[in-house]
């Protein structure tokens, strides 16, 4: 688990609720009903926060889609509902998830904390996600990515540059803006434990 930002932490029940919302949103989409717009069950779920939803195939863990928003002007519960459908249908790297696949898909939610400028030496692998902005390009990697690949801090910084279409090491150049954020990452496979 990746720790959340101070003050942004979700309770276990709120995490479970976001996973239920993501699943229900996908079910409503595949049933041909309109967008699912649930009520926020708590103040935290009603906060305007960014989120990513990642879909994996349960039998082998293969990625089936991941889409999110770094920042949102709508409640977290609505962002998660929208991003779940977007991850299933709009990730251009993959064929869209089908209704038949849905029972075999595991959902992971990354509820994002606030983005803040960060110095390269302050980046903590497993705690921070990164966004680099330079020469009109942007790249983002979530906090779990360097952990999954066993990257050190510099490799993480370099891969964030690559994600933006920039050369490794661009993070050290003048004019490069580096932003850090935390994320609470939880999924159906871990029963939304803290």
Please describe the topology of this protein.
Blueprint: H1 12-30, E1 51-57, E2 63-69, H2 76-89, E3 105-112, E4 116-117, E5 129-134, E6 137-141, H3 144-148, H4 153-163, E7 177-181, E8 183-187
Plain-language structure description:
The protein has 194 residues and is of the alpha+beta class. It folds into two domains: 12-113, Glycoprotein, Type 4 Pilin (2-Layer Sandwich), CATH 3.30.700.20; 116-181, Hypothetical protein ph0010, domain 2 (Dna Ligase, domain 1, 2-Layer Sandwich). Helix content is 25%, strand content 23%. It has helices at residues 12-30, 76-89, 144-148, 153-163; strands at 51-57, 63-69, 105-112, 116-117, 129-134, 137-141, 177-181, 183-187. The strands form two sheets. A four-stranded antiparallel beta sheet has the order 2-1-3-8. Strands 4-7-5-6 form a four-stranded antiparallel beta sheet. A hairpin with a 2-residue loop joins β5 (129-134) and β6.
